[in-house]
Amino acid sequence: MFKRVLITSGPTREPLDPIRFLGNRSSGLTGMNLARVFLKKYAAEVVFVSGPVCRYPSGVTLVKVETALEMRDAFFKYFSGADVIIMAAAVGDFRPAGSSQQKIKKAGFPLVMKLERNPDILKEAGERRTPQQLLVGFAAETENAVKNGKRKFLRKNLDLLVINEISAENPAFGAVRNRVTLLTADRVIPLPRRSKSELAAAIAIQVANLSIMRKNRGVPRE
Ligand code: C5P
Fold first, then answer.
1. Residue 139 beta carbon below 6 angstroms from any ligand 1 atom
2. Best mutation site among 14, 73, 120, 182 for ligand 1, i.e. most ligand atoms within 8 A of its Cβ?
3. 32 and 9 in contact (C-beta within 8 Å)?
4. Which atom of ligand 1 is nearest to the CA of 118?
5. pLDDT tens column, 27-63
6. Strand 160-165 relative to strand 180-183: parallel, antiparallel, unpaired?
């Protein structure tokens, strides 16, 4: 049983002006199903840091955010007390440099928008994590999924990477079913196309297995 599982979920919204934003198609469904399965079977507490979505899980410590910067702040408030950390959010990689205080008018085109980088929360989590914490990241790949995934796994100092294999037939984002491959330090586990609740259950089993293996080994990871 884990004490606290920290999950990021959903999209982020980066404001352009008071009413418009840059966002993405994440529905937050995978994160919500992960929250449910961990709460039901594996965790005393689930902290759920989520961008704006239609439905949120019940029974969690819910922290609603909009932007990547807000998500980062909320995430690191709960980070050190978490034994499992799952980053399922589709965090926007960039934001408009200085959003307008007033609604942007139709005049003055072409309109040029400057973008700046958002923090990579997962990368920072990989740098700050302790050997006792289990860190799970997600990736969306359209080609060379396993090869690219292995690089990401090492670069971000993860224990488990969930690779969404994006194609016309498997859009993943906003879809009800999804096909993923799970990557650990020593295993590549392709899963068949499944509902997101079945996928969440499979991910939770892997996390529980990793935790048991680590305890059995008794050696903290470098
Ligand atoms: O490198 P890439 O953006 O493909 O990595 C995706 C993973 O990183 C996901 O787990 C996502 O939640 C996380 N991420 C993040 N902060 C960002 C971008 C992605 O935590 N700014």
1. yes
2. 120
3. yes
4. 21
5. 999 999 999 999 999 999 999 999 999 999 999 999 9
6. antiparallel
Overall pTM surpassing 0.90 (yes/no): yes
Query: Of 49, 79, 121, 203, which is best to mutate to test ligand 1, by the most ligand atoms within 8 angstroms of its C-beta?
Result: 121
The confidence score (pLDDT) of residue 222 equals 46
CA–chain centroid gap for 29, Å, is: 11
Using DSSP's 3-state secondary structure scheme, residue 181 falls into strand
The full set of domains in the chain, from first to last, is: 2-90+120-216 (3.40.50.10300)
Q: How much is the pLDDT for 166? A: 82
* Backbone φ, ψ for residue 142 (5° rounding): -105, -15
Active site residues: 24
CB count within 10 Å of CB 162 equals 27
All residues at 6 or more sequence positions from 126 whose CB lies less than 8 Å from its CB, including other chains: 135, 137, 155, 156, 157, 158
d(CA 219, CA 133): 13
Whether 138 is in the pocket of ligand 1, judged by its Cβ within 6 Å, is yes
Q: Kindly state if the Cβ of 202 falls inside 6 Å of ligand 1.
A: no
**DSSP 3-state of 52:** coil
Give, in degrees to the nearest 5, the angle at Cα 206 between 171 and 217. 150
Type and span of the H or E element at 16: none
